[in-house]
Write a structure and sequence with these properties.
By secondary structure, the chain is mostly helical. The protein is 63% helix and 0% strand. The protein contains 79 helices and no strands. The protein is globular.
Length: 1499
């Protein structure tokens, strides 16, 4: 059969020799050519049905090969039209036909006729191809367009036009052959086509700029984050992630975003790199993992740029004076801080091989060779020395050879430089070059490499000086004086043990108190200052810390001594260096502490835990959790009250110090390796309660209060198993909903106070009735005995004011950890007794008795008693009684207050600036000695105390007490809290995180404190006032707020200018201006200035005595109303600052943005759009600002984007709730819908990453709002119909896929046909469904009108219908007769013309070929008129392969043109023009037609 078809083709194309010979005299039959063509077409159609399916592709390929060789244009058209009919008759698929045509090797634009006819056929059958096939055909057409040269010959323009017509047909939105989103993806970055093709593609892509605008954050490239310390989670970092190769934002979807979003975000990366403690954030931003060694060129480049910037800053402001050896109150210049920070960053990223040291040095050389920067050369060499000294032993010399180029460039002097001052720390920077030279030369000798480089002349004196220092005589007589020579030797020879061991031993001996002066006298031991430690290279620091480590391990094994205070203090200061983390904090927790615990060296263990509590800052969360698990699970089972108290205090500080943002992700990560029970205490109910309170605070502040994570639920279950307890109703009211629900379901019954009282009285009778001491001891020490012994001691002291000696022996028999259960019973007993008593004398005597137990008999400590009382579950009157007891315990006697006043007066919290802390510490303990066991119990000697005292131990307890007072919303209780703060707030001077504590308190208890302006004011004034003597005036709150704190007024409603100044302060701090105070951020509460600025701003706003909505609206109005007051260059900085602030405030504040968005949606001009600008122009920030037009909409959009961008993922996910409740009901118009898409569109990518199911809910809401808008517009056309559909396709293909197919299909079927046609690829909707459901989609009002018309004009009867049908048939018959007469007249005229031309000897072939074509067109015209009257499509109905929704493919039905009235009219006009041309005989070749149509007017 294949052969027969090909023979038929050959036969059709064959021309007989006789015909060629007598061409000029042959007279053809009138319809001969037409009959031949029809016969050929019928033959091919008939025979193709018999061809096996597998053979059709090859047959079509051969058919096209023969057609491509046809020289007769008419027969070529017949051949190609036959293929079209095959596709329409479904003998072959249209997709296969198009593929074979486009893959045909003869389809080249030089083969003009075949090219033009091929693309006509492709265009003709495209409607029979499913949308996936159309996409592939479009891509092949695009590839064919690339074959044209950019500057083509004019003779090829018809071919180009044919291809362009086909692409235009595909691109036409009204045809809807495939989603425009697919087209945009394929032509996003076109190669150079001919300009006409380029223009067509560019015009199409311009339509998608609106879609890109809807998913773009306003000012995205200007947004900058607050760099926190540790514990970043993905939901906090997804906003800032960059492509590690290009430094560009990572966008999903190939859309024409603005150019600033597609550029390298170097500003963002450099800002983050410039912040202290930003290493972890940079790693997450750039997707760098320590386990994978991946070099990042972009990071390398920015580090080089930062170093060059530092050198430029040093060039303009060189202040390398240095500090003296024994000066602790040094004032380090900004230049020094910058270089210290760069040194730490360089070491970290090179160490983990994220950047290459040799490449950085080479890049520095290339940049510096083009600049005259010399003042910062020593600082540059100093930071290079840091890495070289620590890594040169483990790496080949080849990695460091590029450093020699810097010597040639930076030290070109031909005379030796002068020796620096040995008494100043600047000595080490100035001697850094020669130290590098010594390290490199030693490494070269070890590798037997001959480096033929002479020593730079500039460094000759430096080299000679060092050689003199390491001479044997000099080394032996060396001692630690007041200069930096020993430090210099350590730095220069840290890799040479011959010269290094002696100076390192001198440093260690000095800390141990064994150092001697040059005259042989004893030097007092003192910790090394930060100036000295900063002057050591990384390798020297590692060696020093290793020597401390080794010494303490030996002391732990021997149990003979403990480290000297100066050594421990210096060790603590060394642990702040993040570049030596592996030997520093990591070695401390994973090696040193376990070793000391293993050897049961309790004195050293106690000292190290104290050091961790009161000296270390910015400890990574994973290390804190690791230590917490040691404190709660493996704490020593000894009777040492002091050691047990230290473990509990450590655990308490660790728990309360967990950050809200870092707690959730770090615990989730930690529990993936260890069970959740590892951080829960097995015995201490108080620690578990504090852990729950911290968890509640974290859930509240991160927006995760509506659900419990699996690890969280498991942790809570373990806590309830270990220490069953319950919570008071006023406490549960403060918990997040999920946590509240858990404890309501897992409630543990409260202690029955009456039964407890009876039990105590019974035990007391037993006590008084027993006379044998052994019997008494056996009875009360037994584990099964009710833990009431402290209650007995209370009654004993109450009645006898004395403690029996046997009682001390019993206390020794009860373990320190078991004593906590006795203390809980005592607290419950005490509250029950006071609550049921009458008169003040009773409660005062109770408090006096407890105070005697604390201060006189040393049975319990004040911090444990108050903590236990504060955390007991009390309801109603008993809760108030409990707080009253706490007040009296703290304030009735002066014991605690005197200690606090004395300690705060004599000590300073900036411990790193002191060298005599231990002296003051001993002085305080001598004046107020602490005993951790009863007086008569001397069996256990006290452990050494280096850092702690009762005041510092009480500080975290005071934090909890304040919170518990706030939880009970009773005015009297809050007044008690204010009184306590008045007396004890001075202690907050030693709080390690005072502003964070204030922020957490005001945030978590905002609902209660909103009604207590007096308490809020007292909290802020008391805590910030504690620092008035040790911090500059501008360290925290602003001047207007400070004045408010100083006056007696409780109410204050500041003007907008106040909020503008607050936002400006944060904005300026982020951009690098120092508006607060200079400090060493390594020991500060916050890791950098922007973080400090944010939290002090939030504290100030949260403590204002006005409603949260007023505060938040004023912050928003800084942009919306204060726009004209802000410099235009800084507007994005202000918007960024406003977003940071509101995202960090409670939901009562940031939810105001939804109210403002609701106001914008409901504004009269939005509801009834009267602007001469489009919605997309008014919602474009650049357009609005540059054109000076209406700004209210775009400004509120910009603020909303900034807030959402800075929000955590859990807060952002709440967008669904606010969209459904507040914004969705407002949408009635297209402009409102477009505005709302601008609100949430940019954040769908983040929500999809963090809460995937949430995007589906948002998508369904968009369809529902579109349905409302469609019905509200009635028959009026939708202005943004294509853009809205493009946005919906973006959501489908990027975010939701087929998840909401069923829900969306129901809604799409209710929409107008134009929307159904565009959105049919999302569902199973076919074109037939669109046609049959038109009436169902009419608006309700229109349906009612139709019903009324039907009632007024009832439907016709069967007789009327039959008569109408008969009448219509007669009209059609008459019309056919008229058309036939016209056709006969045309044929007659044609025959006459042929006879005339034959007689004249003309060429008859073209005329004979025209005649069948004219008749054929006339018949087609008749059929078209008949079918248009009957509303019957011309082309046969067919169905292609399945589409996205299944069933018949959308877009495959040839009736598609009938569903758009305009397209139908155009088609009719085209047929009429063709008919007229046929009658007139105007059939020129294609090239001639093109030139005739484009001929200039003068021709």
């Amino acid at each position: 059969m294949d052969t027969e078809i090909l023979e038929a083709v050959n036969s059709f194309l064959k021309v007989e020799p006789i015909e060629e010979a007598f061409l000029s005299v042959i007279v053809y039959k009138p319809n001969g050519e037409e009959e031949k063509s029809c016969s050929f077409t019928e033959t091919i159609l008939r025979k193709f049905e018999e061809v096996p399916q597998d053979n059709k592709e090859g047959l079509v390929r051969q058919y096209l090969q023969r057609a491509a060789t046809a020289t007769n244009i008419s027969r070529l058209r017949v051949l190609m039209n036959t293929l079209g009919k095959l596709a329409e008759a479904h003998a072959i698929t249209a997709r296969m036909l198009c593929d074979k045509i486009l893959l045909c090797d003869r389809l080249v634009y030089e083969n003009a006729n075949f090219w033009i006819e091929s693309f006509k056929i492709i265009k003709r059958v495209l409607s029979l191809v499913d949308y996936k096939g159309v996409r592939e055909i479009m891509k092949m057409c695009r590839d064919k367009a690339q074959t044209f040269p950019v500057n083509i010959n004019v003779s090829f323009l018809p071919q180009l036009q044919a291809l362009k017509d086909t692409l235009n047909y595909i691109f036409d939105r009204n045809n809807c052959l495939l989603p425009g989103y697919f087209i945009a993806n394929e032509i996003m970055k076109p190669p150079p086509y001919h300009w006409t093709i380029n223009k067509m593609m560019t015009d199409f892509m311009e339509e998608f700029r609106r879609t890109a605008q809807m998913v773009s954050i306003i000012g995205h490239s200007h947004m900058l984050p607050i760099v926190e310390c540790f514990g970043y989670a993905d939901h906090m970092m997804n906003s800032w992630k960059l492509d590690p190769n290009t430094l560009r934002f990572v966008f999903k979807g190939n859309l024409p975003y603005d150019s600033d979003l597609l550029e390298e975000q170097t500003k963002l990366l450099r800002y983050v790199l410039d912040q202290p403690y930003s290493k972890e954030m940079v790693s997450v931003m750039m997707s760098l993992q320590k386990q994978q060694k991946q070099r990042c060129n972009a990071l390398e480049e920015q580090l080089v740029n930062l170093i060059i910037s530092a050198m430029e800053m040093t060039e303009s402001n060189d202040s390398m004076m240095g500090s003296s050896f024994n000066v602790y109150e040094e004032q380090t210049s900004m230049n020094e801080w910058v270089w210290l920070h760069l040194s730490s960053q360089l070491i970290y990223f090179v160490l983990f091989q994220f950047v290459s040291f040799s490449h950085i040095v080479t890049a520095l050389y290339e940049k510096l060779s083009k600049k005259e920067l010399r003042k910062g050369r020593d600082q540059l060499m100093w930071i290079l020395l840091q890495f070289i000294s620590g890594s040169i032993q483990k790496n080949p010399i080849a990695n460091f050879l590029p450093t020699f180029k810097l010597f040639d460039l930076l030290y070109p002097e031909q005379e030796p430089l002068k020796l620096p001052d040995c008494t100043k720390s600047s000595l080490l920077r100035q001697m850094a070059p020669i130290c590098i030279w010594i390290h490199l030369m030693k490494k070269a000798r070890l590798e037997n490499m001959n480096i033929n480089r002479p020593l730079p002349i500039a460094l000759k004196n430096h080299h000679d000086f060092l050689q003199h220092l390491v001479m044997p005589n000099t080394m032996m007589s060396m001692s630690l004086g007041n200069d930096f020579r020993i430090i210099l030797i350590c730095n220069a020879y840290s890799t040479n043990q011959e010269y290094f061991s002696r100076p390192m031993n001198i440093l260690t001996e000095a800390l141990n108190g064994n150092a001697k002066t040059a005259a042989g006298g004893q030097l007092p031991s003192a910790p090394f200052s930060m100036v000295v430690l900063d002057s050591l290279t990384v390798h020297s620091k590692m060696s020093l810390i290793h020597s401390f480590f080794t010494q303490m391990i030996k002391q732990a094994q021997a149990k003979s001594s403990i480290p000297a205070p100066a050594l421990v203090e210096t060790y603590a200061r060394l642990l702040v260096y993040t570049e030596i983390e592996s030997l520093g904090i990591k070695g401390f927790l994973q090696q040193l502490l376990p070793a000391v615990f293993k050897h049961q060296a309790w004195g050293i263990l106690h000292t190290l835990l104290e050091m961790f509590l009161y000296r270390l800052h910015h400890i990574p969360t994973q290390y804190r959790l690791q230590l917490l698990s040691h404190c709660t699970v493996v704490s020593p089972q000894t009777n040492k009250m002091q050691l047990n108290l230290c473990f509990e205090s450590t655990a308490l500080r660790l728990i309360t110090g967990l950050g809200s943002v870092e707690m959730q992700p770090q615990m989730s990560r930690y529990f993936s390796e260890k069970p959740p029970g590892s951080v829960a205490s097995s015995e201490s109910e108080e620690l578990n309660r504090v852990l729950i309170l911290t968890l509640a605070r974290s859930m509240h502040m991160t927006g995760l209060g509506d659900e419990l994570q699996p690890w969280c639920k498991e942790l809570l279950n373990i806590i309830m198993q270990n220490t069953p307890h319950s919570w008071a109703s006023h406490s549960l009211a403060c918990f997040p909903p999920a946590l509240n629900e858990f404890f309501v379901q897992n409630n543990h019954p409260l202690e029955n106070k009456q039964l407890l009282k009876k039990s105590v009285e019974e035990e007391y009778r037993n006590w008084t009735s027993m006379s044998n001491d052994n019997d008494i001891m056996n009875h009360f020490i037994r584990p099964s005995t009710n833990p009431l012994f402290l209650c007995l001691l209370f009654k004993m002291i109450w009645e006898t004011e004395n403690v029996s000696p046997v009682a001390y022996k019993i206390l020794e028999g009860i373990s320190a950890r078991a004593l906590s259960a006795h203390l809980r019973k005592l607290c419950d007993y005490l509250v029950g007794e006071v609550a049921n008593s009458n008169g003040k004398d009773f409660i005062h005597k109770c408090v006096d008795t407890i105070n005697n137990m604390i201060w006189k008999y040393n049975i319990v400590t004040i911090d444990r008693v108050v903590l236990c009382l504060a955390l007991r579950t009390q309801e109603g009157n008993e809760a108030q009684v409990c707080f009253l007891i706490i007040q009296l315990l703290l304030l009735k006697t002066s014991e605690l207050r005197n200690r606090i006043q004395e300690f705060c007066k004599e000590n300073h919290p900036d411990h790193w600036k002191q060298n005599n802390w231990h002296e003051k510490h001993l002085s305080f303990h001598q004046k107020y000695p602490e005993k951790f066991a009863p007086d008569e119990s001397a069996s256990h000697p006290p452990l050494p105390v280096y850092f702690s005292n009762v005041c510092l131990r009480f500080l975290p307890v005071l934090d909890i007490v304040v919170h518990r007072f706030i939880e009970l919303p009773i005015q009297h209780v809050h007044q008690i809290c204010e009184v306590i703060l008045d007396h004890l707030s001075v202690l907050y001077k030693f709080h390690d995180r005072p502003i964070t504590y204030l922020y957490n308190t005001l945030h978590f208890y905002e609902r209660i404190l909103r009604e207590r302006p007096s308490l809020k004011k007292k909290l802020v004034s008391a805590i910030t006032g504690a620092f008035c003597d040790i911090r500059p005036p501008n360290w925290c709150v602003s001047e207007p707020y400070k004045m408010f704190l100083q006056n007696q007024e409780l109410l204050w409603n500041p003007e907008l200018n106040y909020y503008i100044n607050l936002v400006r302060r944060l904005s300026d701090t982020i951009t690098g201006k120092n508006l607060f105070f200079n400090t060493d951020w390594r020991f500060n509460e916050f890791p950098n200035a922007p973080a400090h600025a944010l939290y002090v701003t939030c504290v100030e706003l949260l403590s204002l005595p006005i409603a949260p909505s007023i505060v938040a609206n004023n912050v928003v109005d800084v942009i919306v109303k204060g726009y004209s007051l802000i410099p235009q260059k800084e507007i994005h900085n202000y918007i960024n600052a406003v977003g940071i602030i509101l995202a960090a405030l409670p939901e009562t504040h940031w939810s105001v943005i939804y109210d403002r968005l609701q106001e914008a949606l409901n504004s009269p001009k939005m509801v009834k759009w009267t602007y001469r600008f489009t919605a997309f122009e008014l919602f474009n920030f650049k357009t609005v600002c540059e054109s000076m037009i209406e700004k209210s909409y775009v400004l509120i959009l910009a603020v909303a984007h900034s807030i959402f961008h800075h929000m955590g993922g859990f807060k952002l996910a709440s967008m669904t709730k606010y969209l459904a409740e507040k914004l969705k009901p407002c949408v009635r118009t297209e402009q409102q819908l477009v505005f709302l898409c601008h609100v949430f569109g940019p954040f769908l990518q983040r929500i999809d990453l963090e809460k995937p199911n949430t995007v589906a809910g948002i998508a369904i809401m968009i369809y529902e709002m579109l349905d409302v808008v469609d019905k509200a517009h009635g028959q009026a056309p939708l202005e943004y119909i294509d853009t809205i559909c493009d946005f919906l396709y973006h959501i489908k293909y990027i975010h939701v896929g087929n998840v909401i197919k069923n829900e969306s299909e129901v809604i799409i079927k209710r929409l107008r046909p134009a929307l159904q046609l565009r959105l049919r690829f999302i569902t199973r909707l076919n074109i037939e469904d669109i046609n049959t459901e038109k009436n169902l989609n009419l608006p309700l009002v229109q349906q009612q009108q139709q019903q009324q018309q039907q009632q007024q004009h009832p439907p016709p009867t069967q007789q009327q219908l039959a008569a109408a049908v008969q009448q219509q048939a007669q009209q059609q018959q008459q019309l056919q007769q008229q058309q036939q007469q016209k056709a006969n007249m045309v044929n007659a005229q044609s025959q006459q013309q042929q006879q005339v031309q034959m007689q004249a000897g003309g060429n008859a072939q073209p005329q004979q070929q025209q005649q069948p074509s004219q008749q054929q067109q006339s018949q087609q015209h008749q059929q078209q008129q008949q079918q248009s009257q009957q509303n019957v499509p011309m082309v046969a109905v067919g169905s292609g392969s399945g589409a996205a929704g299944g069933g018949n493919a959308p877009g495959n039905h040839p009736q598609m043109a009938n569903y758009n009235l305009m397209a139908q009219q155009q088609q009719q006009q085209q047929h009429q023009q063709q008919h007229m041309a046929a009658n007139m005989g105007q059939h020129q070749p294609q090239q001639m037609q093109y030139f005739m149509q484009n001929m200039p007017p003068r021709y």
